[in-house]
Amino acid sequence: TTKMTGVRRIIALMLAVSSAAPTPASCDDWAASGECDRNAAFMWESCESACTKHGFKDPRAAIDEMALAGPPAGGQILELRLASGANLAPIRIDLRPDLSP
Fold it and tell me: Which residues touch 27 (CB under 8 Å, ≥6 apart)?
């Protein structure tokens, strides 16, 4: 028959996904051509080692460094508390004008 069974359909999907994944060689070529900056979201998710190898800095690291440094002057804190009786600590969110508008 021409219908695919569930198992065959899953195997076909897995093969399609694995063949679409970037290879180390393509990651290296893309990183060398500057894609780690131009297409940062994809490259840092899929080709992080190639970006690092070519001397690019992960853009997420700068945000992490600023967040860990603490709130700047003029920053505000939003604190969310769950209903009383919930045995959970409040959630504190730093509202930072330097990280988000």
Answer: 43, 46, 47, 49, 50
Q: Where are the alpha helices (DSSP H) in the chain?
A: 6-20, 24-32, 35-38, 40-46, 48-53, 59-68
Q: Which residue has the tokens 């930072």?
A: 96
Q: How far apart are the first and last CA of the chain?
A: 57
Amino acid at 13: L
* Gap between the Cα atoms of 101 and 66, Å rounded: 15
| Whole-structure pTM value | 0.47
Per-residue pLDDT of the chain in tens (101 residues, 90 and over written 9): 455 567 777 777 766 655 556 777 889 999 999 999 999 989 998 999 999 999 999 988 877 777 777 666 777 778 888 777 667 888 888 777 766 55
Contacts for 26 with CB less than 8 Å, ≥ 6 apart? none
